[in-house]
């Protein structure tokens, strides 16, 4: 009964043809393990390839005992990365080190940028037509890193590259629900921009809910810096892993359903976008309609309040800097 309720609440019904292979790179980590567990429960996944530099065979063996109809394989170390990637329709990358108290997502750049670049190079070689879902922080920079690697390999398709910003939307729904004493599952908040600090812009004016200015300012700050709550509460042992895994599983599920032909699926995601091009920003998160080839339609921002216009003005310089940092990392001499 519990498993049935999880499927009913977490994923849509499996009414379309199955057969997707999903690879999780960083599957033995704090996000990777619960994410892999949730993907094993997903009826749209036929093959689940788990990769990391250590411990993946054990994680795969453990998860493989769950009684759902998908085959799980474990791959450990660089020499087995190609096997994990080959024939994958979707590649999810949560690999990287977590934040610690006092660290920003940008502080993670030097370590995680190298990890993501290496994994992207392998993906471009072994699964150039796969859809890549980037969770590894800082997403504002790691998505451009993957794009530049794919450009160098001559296989870049912007409709197949996604920065997973779903956690910002999940948090926004939760925090608004708490403030307004309503069911967070029924609260829809359009969150735009990027995936760190001031680049996260919740458009509370579009919810149809009335807020005082004090509520708007407090909610906005909490949504922007919600990750810090988890880092502080974990007291040096990590950052948001369980909530990020759920958010990553949600986006993966939505994409798999869209790839199989289900219509009308819209999720927020950080992609190569026209939305902020006039302000010199190449990658931006807004609601995106997903389709059989990945990105089908990028939605515009929509109407915003004066307060939200100021959020946008503060976010743009930071986004420019983050994106440039990722591009330069790949293209430096």
Automatic annotation (TrEMBL):
Keywords: NAD, Oxidoreductase, Tricarboxylic acid cycle
Keyword rRNA-binding annotated: no
GO biological process: malate metabolic process; tricarboxylic acid cycle
Gene3D superfamilies, sorted: Lactate dehydrogenase/glycoside hydrolase, family 4, C-terminal, NAD(P)-binding Rossmann-like Domain
EC number assigned by the record: 1.1.1.37
Subunit architecture: Homodimer.
One CC-aspect GO term: mitochondrial matrix
Annotated ranges, domain Lactate/malate dehydrogenase N-terminal: 21-163
Protein's organism: Spizellomyces punctatus (strain DAOM BR117)
Catalytic activity annotation: (S)-malate + NAD(+) = oxaloacetate + NADH + H(+)
GO MF: L-malate dehydrogenase (NAD+) activity; mRNA binding
Residues that, per the record, bind substrate: 99, 105, 137, 171
Family from the record: Belongs to the LDH/MDH superfamily. MDH type 1 family.
Enzyme class per UniProt: oxidoreductase
Keyword NAD appears in the UniProt entry: yes
Protein name, as recorded: Malate dehydrogenase
